[in-house]
Specification:
The protein is an alpha+beta fold. It has one helix and eight strands.
């Protein structure tokens, strides 16, 4: 009986650890060092704006991870050369299901 309870306790703790670990990793903001992001509101949604200091390559773009309940998708922002303003990506939804930025990442090109 004690073995069964111990196995159940280990299973519950491991399940809790897996759900907390994946939720923390999935909703993160992945910007390289030297980049600063800011979220802002748009009509029925949310956007993200990222500015980066000059680095390797020619420029950068931001990729927003969007959600509105059970739907998930990506919005890729335009390419921005270093020194020419922020890169932006906006998640837009509808009146009853507004979208939000779940996380974002920056790709250097």
């Amino acid at each position: 009986m004690r073995r069964k309870l111990a196995a159940l306790a280990v299973a519950v703790f491991s399940l809790f650890g897996l759900t907390v670990g994946t939720a923390a990793a999935a909703g993160g903001d992945f910007a390289p060092p030297g980049c600063f992001g800011e979220r802002y509101g748009v009509l029925f949604g949310q956007g993200v704006s990222v500015s980066c200091f000059p680095g390797e390559g020619y420029g950068y773009r931001v990729i927003a991870h969007c959600t509105n309940g059970s739907a998930f998708w990506y919005v890729v922002g335009d390419f921005v050369p270093y020194g020419f303003g922020p890169a932006t990506a906006e998640c837009t939804g509808a009146l009853l299901v507004p979208a939000r930025v779940f996380g974002y990442q920056v790709d250097e090109i």
